[in-house]
Design a protein that fits this description.
Layout (H helix, E strand, L loop, with lengths): L1 H25 L1 H26 L1 H17 L1 H10 L4 H27 L9 H31 L7 H10 L4 H31 L5 H31 L1
């Protein structure tokens, strides 16, 4: 009897999970997530082909990808230019990675916000993102879409496409308008970084071939310290409020 009772219950849970997944993927955020995953697979496949055809170059591309995901575009682009790569390689890679970043993390944040899909290991990340978005929301709201574009484009701490997309969500922007503004600001920022860092690299390289690597190490150190201080500051505020 117990086995017969358990079986329909399992089937019901399975049907509910299947229905939930279907509902998530059918919505606009679900479509965005599917596009992000597809773009990730295409990019990974391209890196795999590069690894077979040109192992040395593929190592640099994987390095840029890893640094971009871990430390951001500034360090990733500096690394690329230091290793002798040009705009035609560095800019498209950064555009693809940051586009994937937004297309995957934004819908997952929305699902988590609506309690439709909660991923435990992303909860702290989404909480920090939400706090950052709420901190800057009022400033952006004064200027509307232009304010959101500038927020994403300008290189302040804890600004960027993911936080910007969450601000757009909190402001109630339509999904496709939100994505268009955020990605346009992101691409403008990448081209701006490319121009500045390329010129900076040329100046630094004229002094010493090791200077650029020293700068990368220094920037990584600053990033890590800044990240730790930022987390410590907000943890302190939470304890004070508690």
């Amino acid at each position: 009897m117990e086995e017969n009772a358990t079986q329909p219950e399992n089937e019901l849970n399975s049907q509910q999970n299947h229905q939930l997944k279907s509902t998530l993927l059918a919505g606009p955020e679900g479509c965005l997530l599917v596009v992000g995953i597809a773009l990730t697979l295409v990019y990974s496949f391209w890196l795999g082909i590069k690894l077979l055809l040109s192992p040395d170059e593929s190592q640099l591309l994987i390095g840029i990808t890893a640094i971009e995901l871990t430390f951001g575009r500034g360090l990733a682009m500096t690394f690329g230019y230091t290793e002798g790569l040009g705009h035609s390689t560095v800019i498209p890679i950064c555009i693809i990675i940051e586009t994937i970043y937004v297309l995957i993390l934004y819908p997952l944040f929305v699902f988590s916000w609506r309690r439709l899909l909660v991923i435990n290991w992303l909860k702290k990340t989404f909480e920090r993102t939400r706090r950052a978005a709420e901190t800057h929301k009022d400033k952006v709201q004064k200027y509307g879409v232009i304010g959101l574009f500038v927020f994403v484009w300008f290189p302040f701490w804890m600004t960027g496409p993911v936080v910007g997309s969450v601000i757009g969500f909190l402001l109630g922007l339509r999904l496709w308008l939100n994505m268009a503004v955020v990605l346009a600001g992101t691409y403008a920022a990448i081209f701006g970084w490319a121009f500045v860092l390329r010129q900076f690299h040329k100046q630094v390289a004229s002094y010493s071939s090791y200077a650029a690597m020293v700068i990368i190490a220094l920037l990584m150190f600053i990033f890590i310290v800044g990240h730790l201080l930022y987390r410590a500051f907000h943890e302190g505020k939470k304890q004070d409020l508690g």
